[in-house]
Design goal:
Bound molecules: flavin-adenine dinucleotide
Helix content: 25-40%
Largest sheet: 9 strands, antiparallel
Structural class: alpha+beta
Shape: globular
Distance between the termini: 19 Å
Length: about 450
Amino acid sequence: MAIMESSIRPDEMKLDGGGVEAFRHRLSGVLVCPGDQNYEAARAVWNGMIDRRPALIAYCANRQDVIEAVDFARTTGILTAVRSGGHNIAGASLCDGGFVIDLSRMNRVTVDPVSRTARAEGGALLADLDAATQAHGLATTTGVNSDTGLIGLTLGGGIGRLGRKHGLSCDNMLWAEIVTADGQVLNASEQENADLFWGLRGGGGNFGIVTAITYRLHPLGPTVLAGSLVYEWKSVRDALRRYAEFSAAAPDALCADAALITMPDGSHGFAISAFYAGSMDEAERVLRPLRQALTPIADRIGPISYVQLQKAGDASFPRGHRFYWKAQFLRQITEAAADALIDRFPSVPSPRSFFVFQQVGGAIARVPAGATAYANRDAAYDSFPVSIWSDLAADEANIAWAREMYAVLRPFGMNGVYVNNLGDEGLERVKAAYGENYDRLVTLKRKYDCDNLFRLNQNVHP
Ligand SMILES: Cc1cc2nc3c(=O)[nH]c(=O)nc-3n(C[C@H](O)[C@H](O)[C@H](O)COP(=O)(O)OP(=O)(O)OC[C@H]3O[C@@H](n4cnc5c(N)ncnc54)[C@H](O)[C@@H]3O)c2cc1C
């Protein structure tokens, strides 16, 4: 893999048993090594395709542990990965023979309802933030699968249901605390280390390990109007056209994702997943034209708690299954693009797989492209085939299908791609994710991590 280049193997590193034991004693958390009882569980990540065997996995208990781990990584020269939710599609948070700094035990979220802010530790999941903020009738933008790592998602941007109304997760970041490659703890905000703050809002894990982020919150719920409309395959062309028109004209408070799917009976279908961030009456009014335009075989739109809604997609992404996807942004869904997808979709080898449109735009698009590291703000949809299967022997067919779906849409796609949905696609696609912001990220990388200690990511080369 490109992101694994220049790896230092355990037999090449300046590491001895005494050094490892001394590090273990300095940690308040737990160090797991091959042969330990819990090693197999500790090396598992969300994508079952990723099968790597690190030499050391440090479960950090607090900020001091993160500093110790970064110092250990720097002084030994060991290849180092950073893991929070373990959701990276290409398994960037796991490495063969190297060192994994795991933050999953640092998952506390504290909410200040008066200032409408929440402080999340570096290993919190989306579910941790949603539960804590909704206890006060507040929320901020996160993604659609509740066990995704919150900080990993935010550092790349953070696309979710509230994005069109309130911006990306990173647009709601007010402050961050980071341990940089030299083991220093820095604060980043508009007032402090503003260059770093710019880079953390989209630049991924390139600049260090983020141990906490403070988010701006917004009133929401606890009950919202949301749910899905499902259409038979025979009406897929009409339904997709209607979706394209409706979503393009939608107000910011509405977010509508859509997917080509396989139904439980094996036939194919089309589903729209709609959500409105506002009052029930307004939501009913805004969604009525979509619900009445074509008759779905199921209309599952109704009142639901926001916390429950945020978990509703979890079953579609079963941890440990094999996954492959390839993403690109779209400005619009043209008839020709829809036709190309509809023609190819039925060759899908696995009934779990789908092709998804995730709607962006709205408030996301009103932030200037150079205001944060996240660049592709003029996109209207992120789009990608999601291949999901469980049999190792079926890898080739499922990967080939996803690549073909990506390729048929390529003529209609933007050059831009969402950095958090990039797999192992190389430097050109990383540059496509950052566009004109890439050179500024290189300057920052030279300042904060010139030796590229943090390189197992969508790497900005110093
Ligand atoms: C099922 C699924 C659904 C998703 N849905 C969405 C969605 O709706 N919206 C969206 O925007 N994205 C979504 N994503 C993409 C997601 O944002 C990225 O995969 C993200 O990197 C996940 O973060 P993580 O902590 O879980 O991953 P990990 O694999 O643990 O980490 C990935 C990388 O993030 C960096 N990183 C993580 N934590 C830290 C930290 N504390 N400090 C510094 N660097 C860190 C590191 O570079 C690491 O290599 C989804 C992914 C999956 C698998």
